Amino acid sequence: MTDNRATVTCPACGLEESFSKLAHARLFIEKHRDETGHDPVWELGRFPSGVEQMGDEAGVCGIPESFE
Ligand SMILES: [Zn+2]
Fold first, then answer.
1. pLDDT tens digits, one per residue of 22-37
2. Banded pLDDT at 1 (limits 50, 70, 90)
3. Which of 39, 38, 35, 42 is nearest to 20 (CA)?
4. How remote is the CA of residue 47 from the centroid of ligand 1, in Å?
5. Ligand 1 centroid to 49 CA: how many Å?
6. Using alpha carbons only, what angle is made at residue 22 by residues 19 and 27, rounded to the nearest 5 degrees?
7. What is the rounded distance in angstroms from the CA atom of residue 4 to the CA atom of residue 23?
8. Which of 19, 22, 39, 67 is most buried, judged by most C-beta within 10 A?
9. 61 pLDDT band (50/70/90 cuts)?
């Protein structure tokens, strides 16, 4: 099961890595930038849909049937 919240890409060398934690992606960017002088960028590909899904599940669980 994959849960990639951030994809780091580097236009300078074509590097592409996926991370499940934003902190790891940020560390990777800083390290790559330090080692190569490149300027990688990240994209939060699946993050919006994940939040939406979690919100739906929370709503279903959080509202008692008798509330209606
Ligand atoms: Zn690079």
1. 899 999 999 999 999 9
2. very low
3. 42
4. 24
5. 28
6. 85
7. 13
8. 19
9. low
Tell me, in angstroms, the distance from the centre of ligand 1 to residue 10's CA: 5
Least confident of 1-15, 17-31, 53-67: 53-67
**Three-state secondary-structure class, residue 55:** helix
> In what order do the strands lie in the sheet containing 15-19?
15-19, 6-10, 41-43
How many angstroms does the Cα of residue 60 sit away from the middle of ligand 1? Answer: 44
Distance from the CA of 6 to the center of ligand 1, in angstroms? 17
- pLDDT (0 to 100) of residue 62: 52
8: helix, strand or coil? strand
CA atoms of 63 and 49, how far apart (whole Å): 22
